[in-house]
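Practice problem: predict the structure.
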Amino acid sequence: MVTRAALSLAALSLLLAACGEKPAASPPADAPLSAQAEQGKRLFSQYCGACHSIVGDAAIVGPAMAGIATRAGTRIEGLSAQDYIVESILAPGAYLVPGFDNLMPSTWGTTLTGEEMDAIVAFLLTLQ
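Answer:
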C-alpha cells in the first residue's frame, strides 16, 4: 500500500513538474575575442580599468565604456567609432562626455605603442 502511494505521489510530482514553466534559457555565450582584442582587453585592464568601467553605466572617474562601440560612431558627425575612440585616447580633452571633467592623461600617445593602441581600440570596438 505504501509503495502504491509513493508511486502515485511520484507520478503526480512528475506531472506537475511537466506542466510548470520551463526555466529561462541561458544567455548565449559571448563571441570569442580576436587575439588583438584579447590583448586590448588585458591592456585596458592594466591601463584604463582603474578609471573606466566596462560593465553597465557604472562611472568610476571617467565614463563607462559599455556600449562605446555603438555610441562612439554617433558622437561627432563624420567621425567613425574607431576614429572617435583613437582621438579620445590621444587628445582626451577634444570630446568630453557631458558630466565628466578632463582628468584623463594626455600622454597615452607616447606611453602606448601603435600595436597597443590598436589592440585597445579593437577591444573597445567589441563593447556594443
